[in-house]
Amino acid sequence: MRKIALLFLFVLFMVSWTGVYAAPDTAPAAKPAISLPKVSAGKTVEARGSSRQPVLSQVRWANHTEALTGSAMLRLVMDVSGPVEASGVVIAGPTPQLSVIIKGTTPAKTIKNLTFDGKVIEKVSFAASGQDTKVIVDLPSMADDLDYRVFTLPSDPQAKRPFRVIVDINEPVPLPDYSFTPGLKNKVIALDPGHGGSDPGAIGPSNYMEKTATLAVAKRVQALLEKAGAKVIMTREEDCDVFGPKATAAEELNARSTAANSRKADVFLSIHINAFTDRSVGGTSTYYYQKTKYDLMLAQALQTSLVEAGKLQDRRANPANFYVIKRTRMPAALIELAFISNPDEEKLLRLPDFQQKMSLGIVRGLERFFDQAAKLN
Description:
The protein is of the alpha/beta class. The chain has eight helices and 16 strands. Strand 3 (86-91) and strand 4 (97-102) form a beta hairpin.
């Protein structure tokens, strides 16, 4: 009897021991009993998101003209049922558009697309884009960062105003009609030596800086043009920032285009040096933005004369959306004289003789342009 009792106690002890040390292994198997309900992940997120998402409930707009400057703008006001974040970006093609994303919102079914007269905007369309609302604003012409603002305003219970997303868009200023005469005498030419000051631009294998080369060439071009009777506007005449230290890229570039716009230059020319990861790549190229009927003509005249002067590979005249050639109101071009990343071309850029050759090429290109443009009058 005593043996049976001892055996019973031993079995009881082993069961308890096994149960204690088996617990960690069996615990994960118990997790499904407390897991999320068996619904698809996408459906769960969508259901919770839509129930909590602010709703874009109403859109209104107004035109405004500044009393002092006479500049006009259009303001879109979009009411939202809760706080949201919004941002915008301009898309160049195939037609200019301002794309505004209002994060975490749903457009109400009552929100309809809008059509305008095209002076400031042409059309506004609304669509759900995942968990966000995408607002597409069709523009009559290309815009830049300084041409629009997207921001939010908090709700104002006392004034009974909800949370709002605001889009301000400036009215495009019409370009003047140009009429050119042959020759360089009395022409007003804006020269923009690329980079400068805190911005060295591209740096070559032997540490020659783009800002140094562009200023050296620009000064030579200035001397040649003034000798030919032209008036030259330099965006910078020394190693400095044009807008000022710590400026944003838009502020710096706007300062350069404003220097030409405010003094009503006949043409604007930005001088740069190219660079590429493959050091064997070289050549000369010119860029234009076709805002007038003369921009392509100017770029082609400069490209032809620069290739004749420098004898480097012809990388052609190409369209581009560069800020300074887009924001200037006169025919404009941006030239890339050579590749500073190419060791051979970097050596050339250092040479005063090569700098003078390219400067003469620029002046001949400008003269060629005015002769061709005068025939269009």
